[in-house]
Amino acid sequence: MSQSPPDAAAAAADPSPAPSVSPCPPPAPPVVEWPEGGALTRDWVAALASTLDWCSRHLPADQLPTVLPPALVQRLVLAAAAILHREPNLVRVDPRPGQAVVVVGDVHGQLHDVIFLLRDAGFPSEDRVFVFNGDYVDRGAWGLETFLLLLAWKVLLPNSVFLLRGNHESKYCTSVYGFEKEVMVKYKDQGPQVYRKFLRCFEDLPLATIIAGCVYTAHGGVFRGTIVLPSKRAKKGKKSRNKNKADFTVDLTSMRLGSLDELLKARRTVLDPPWEGANLIPGDVLWSDPSLEMGLSPNKERGIGLLWGPDITQQFLRTNNLKASEERYNNCGAYIVLNPPDYATPVFHSFEAVKPRPAAHPFYDFEEVIDSDEELNLDAMDSGTSSQ
Q1: Are 58 and 19 in contact (CB under 8 A)?
Q2: Containing H/E element for 131?
Q3: For the purposes of burial, counting CB atoms within 10 Å of the CB of 285, is it exposed (0-12), middle (13-18) or buried (19 or more)?
Q4: What is the mean pLDDT of residues 93-105?
Q5: DSSP E strands, 7-98
Q6: Mean pLDDT, rounded, of the chain
Q7: Confidence band of 186 (pLDDT split at 50, 70, 90)
Q8: Could you tell me which residues belong to the region Disordered (predicted)?
Q9: What b/e readout covers 329-363, taking b as 16+ CB neighbours within 10 angstroms?
């Protein structure tokens, strides 16, 4: 659902979304306020979606706070983050009898496609669960609005909407691919504070799901396990003076497939997943890629994560009693529906990008930035800067 790059000169002159021009635009919606009583309702979330759509079409980007105040944005982000924080790294989604599961991949700030997708698939409900696999922001012009809408659904129906983290939900990627600039353009003086709230929420996003006990979903893929060796300091027959000091070291030169228990224990509250050190699982889950070559190997092209072969896929499925589908589908936009009772056969639903849509430019220089995510400036990622 990515958007085609606009004319380079126009993008350089004006990086913000351009509201559509009509002779008689509809009246502006009221300022969004937190609902009385404090609990979100379906009507409130529906009104929010309508308001965000209207703003994208009729309001300059830097005027968004006149309808969507920063205090409201921060309250919604914090409410969702509190829910997400309580969820484990690996969320087990156990549908009730007859309940279908919709799985959605990257949406990258394509607000209008997300609004269409929710309606087309059937909104989250007691009959339908949604699992979003990350990359809500960057590239597209409405990452803030897209993520806020999905957070609202999460707050409304926490057991029917599951939001996983993508590799773009990081400080590094959002500083390079546009989301940080988007927030600053839209919220100006309040931008840094709003942006920090989003970053903290990114840290709370779970990493993976297992649906109906048989389907594994994650933004990237599988992950390595920690290989622990006896420490050279530990001598046979000699007790350690410090009972709290481990007599083991981590071997980072060998690789083995990780276990679900290791995934559950990994520390996910890191803004930029490390590509070195002991806590490599978050980076693997978010950045790894499948390969035709057998075995596990470092993902040298990306500089982070793994490459895993068909044998590793089979090992992971067999070890964890999971199922897989051999189907593949190329399309402009799509979502998958897993239907009861087995949930193991995906049904693909394809659609074209929603039109008409507002003219918009990305909030990053797409000609200067490697848009494939295949190469990273790891030094910049480590220091939290966006220099290339």
Answers
A1: yes
A2: strand 128-132
A3: buried
A4: 95
A5: 90-93
A6: 85
A7: very high
A8: 1-35
A9: eeeebbbbbbeeeebeebeebebeebeebbebbbb
Q: What is d(CA 302, CA 307) in angstroms, rounded to the nearest whole number?
A: 10
Identify which of 206, 141, 192 has the alpha carbon closest to the alpha carbon of residue 364.
Answer: 141
Residue with tokens 């400080």: 171
Neighbours of 202 (CB within 10 A): 27
Question: What letter represents residue 258's amino acid?
Answer: G
Contacts of 37 (CB under 8 A, 6+ apart): none
Number of C-alpha atoms within 13 angstroms, CB side, residue 301? Answer: 11
- The model's pLDDT over 294-334, given as tens digits with 9 standing for 90+, comes to 999 999 988 899 999 999 999 999 999 998 654 455 545 68
Reduce the DSSP state of residue 315 to 3 states and report it: helix
Query: Are the CB atoms for 277 and 291 separated by under 8 Å?
Result: no
Annotated catalytic residue within 168, 219, 349, 361: 168
Question: Is the distance from CB of 291 to CB of 299 less than 8 angstroms?
Answer: no
Spell out the long-range contacts of 194-199 with Cβ–Cβ below 8 A and sequence spacing 24 or more: 194/70, 194/73, 194/74, 197/73, 197/74, 197/77, 197/78, 197/81, 198/77, 198/137, 198/144, 198/147, 198/174, 199/171, 199/174, 199/271
**Is-contact 346 211, C-beta < 8 A?**
no
In three-state form (DSSP H/G/I as H, E/B as E, the rest C), the secondary structure along 223-282 is: CECCEEEECCCCCCCCCCCCCCCCCEEEECCCCCECCHHHHHHCCCCCCCCCCCCCCCHH
Q: Which two tokens stand for residue 195?
A: 């942006």
Cα separation of 80 and 217, whole Å? 21
Which helix (H) or strand (E) element contains residue 136?
none
Neighbours of 221 (CB within 10 A): 22
- Residue 248 clears pLDDT 50, i.e. is over it: no
Burial 300-315 (b: 16+ CB within 10 A, else e): eebbbbbbbbeebbeb
168 is catalytic: yes
Whether 11 has a pLDDT exceeding 50, the answer reads no
Q: Which residue has the higher pLDDT, 173 or 243?
A: 173
How far apart (Å, rounded) are the C-alpha atoms in residues 364 and 385?
15
Taking each helix axis as running N to C, give the angle between helix 70-86 and helix 143-156, from 0 to 180 degrees, rounded to the nearest 10.
50
The number of beta carbons lying within 10 Å of the beta carbon of residue 18 is: 15
